[in-house]
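FW: tagging you since you asked about this chain on Friday. Here's the raw sequence from the shared folder, copied in full. Didn't touch anything.
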Amino acid sequence: MEIEKIPVPQVSRCFVLIFEVINWLPRINDLIDYFFKEVYQPGDELLIATPVKSYELSEKALNKMPEEQIGVQLKKLLREDIIKGNREYQNLVRDIISFNDIESFNKRALIEDLYRRLRDYKYFDEQKLQNFSNAIKLKEGQKHIFLFYQKEEIPVPASLDEFKKMKSFSFDADKIKQIFADSEITTHFIFLNKDLVEKTGVEWMRGSQTPMADVSMEVFSAFHEIAKTTGGETFVSANASLAFKQASAASENYYLLYYTPKDYKADNRFHKIEVKIKGGKFRITH
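HL: got it, structure written out here
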């Protein structure tokens, strides 16, 4: 009699931390310390994406030096990359406000060009997200993305109200949902909603009469749906470290259920699976 072999689930973990933040936030240091102290376990892998570049720390790389030393180096890299990566962004914001305060025959054309460059600079790139998916799709075990996105308000002169209608991202949210779900990636979205002046430290904006437009809501809606579809959570907080603690805790406690559907045929579509539990103290994410 042939005995059916029961598959053994892979429990290794790959963490991806993506920082789409406008300014360096000191709480990121606490976040990195917490990761290595409370979350990281031998066998885990870590990928980090900054506004400048991406870093991959495999199990082998993480075993080469003490976790504390790795944390110190990562915090230094993050700070440098976030400041460097957003220098052009800050300059564009300053230029828009400066041009708005002067009189010039081609003032509108100048501000329109700056505004387009500002929006293009902050566009989420679909190819970048797909590259992340491809990079970790073949990795075994659990795969968790933690996307940190900082609330973004940009100056929009009253004469350019039509530009407020421009989209805040250039990707197909439904396509990204499908890619991430197909790659078995759980996505946690952490929306950092700190006050604009406090978060940037840009004192020169206090006296500006240029109205500010919140361009974060489209991104929030898109990634909230991506998180929900992939079994992740959405967190809204002014504290990056605290939000990460909550998100990582949500990924720590789980049951792994798996089955083989009858007459399986890959059709590149989502299918409804119903799971019920007794009692009212639990909720299911998937």
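FW: The radius of gyration is 22 Å.
HL: agreed, and The chain has a mean pLDDT of 77.
FW: great, closing this out.
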